[in-house]
Design brief:
Elements: H1 2-5, H2 10-22, H3 28-36, E1 57-60, E2 63-65, H4 68-79, E3 89-95, H5 101-106, E4 110-117, H6 120-132, E5 138-142, E6 154-159, H7 168-172, E7 174-184, E8 190-199, E9 202-211
Parallel strand pairs: 3-4, 3-6, 4-5, 6-7
Antiparallel strand pairs: 1-2, 7-8, 8-9
Helix pairs in contact: 2-3, 3-4
The structure holds S-adenosyl-L-homocysteine.
């Protein structure tokens, strides 16, 4: 479709990046990644014309792709303490991969992105989207973000679904100084939280802003229920 119409989405993507700048996203590494990833590819064609607006859009199975602003903000918080360009982390986790868009952005910053999604059909769809874009360092796993026992010493975690309370088990997976960025709480009173691991049993926590994410649900699902 892009080739036929001669319209490449490049200009609207640049406008999206300008909007992110105006909204307060400052980290050029994040803006650069957002300017390179074609967000429309993560959506059904019916939504392509709105793909670069700052809005969440449906991806089926009662789930949504997050707003560009929130993807940028969470990524910015995740990498804030790490200086340098390129793949500054070894291993990071993305919980609630959904369309795979956030994982695609994170693929710029880590050698390995482990992405967890509980809804099976979203796993196969996002895998093929990332493959088509030539992104090879993201593994999408059909699993439950509440049960990630096998992983440890990770450099950061982003979670795009809101648990009712901070899941302490996730903090255990972080290495020292690493961050967990996630929404916490129920609809209408959710906060984006940034957690930074201090020592084995201590962490610092700060609230970033009000947000509205889908709830984090337990167990894997064949069809979104
Ligand atoms: N980052 C996604 C946003 C998807 S919305 C994107 O860029 O498109 C959040 C996703 O979290 C949904 O797809 C939902 O199915 C998933 N989710 C909810 N609870 C989960 C859990 N316990 N483990 C893994 N994924 C979960």
């Amino acid at each position: 479709m892009e080739a036929k119409s001669g319209f490449t989405f490049k200009r609207v993507r640049e406008q999206m990046v300008e909007m992110l700048l105006e909204m307060g996203i400052k980290d050029f590494r994040v803006l650069d990644a957002m300017s390179q990833i074609a967000r429309h590819q993560f959506l059904d064609e019916a939504f392509w014309s709105r793909a670069y607006e700052n809005r969440s859009l449906t991806i089926g199975y009662k789930q949504t792709i997050s707003q560009p602003y929130i993807v940028a903000r969470m990524t910015e918080l995740l990498i804030e303490k790490a200086s340098g360009r390129g793949k500054i982390f070894k291993k990071i986790i993305d919980i609630g991969s959904g369309s795979g868009y956030q994982s695609a952005i994170l693929s710029f910053f880590a050698e390995e992105v482990i992405s967890i999604e509980r809804i099976k059909p979203l796993v196969s769809k996002s895998r093929s989207t990332l493959l088509n874009l030539g992104i090879k360092n993201v593994s999408i796993i059909n699993g439950d973000g509440y049960m990630l026992d096998g992983l440890k010493n990770v450099d950061g975690i982003i979670c795009a679904a809101a648990p009712p309370e901070i899941p302490e088990d996730l903090i255990k997976l972080l290495k020292k100084d690493a961050r967990l960025i996630l929404p916490v709480g129920f609809k209408d009173m959710q906060k984006l939280i940034c957690i930074e691991k201090q020592n084995k049993n201590s962490y610092e926590k700060f609230e970033v802003e009000d947000v509205a994410f889908v709830p984090m649900l337990g167990g894997i699902s064949r069809n979104g229920d």
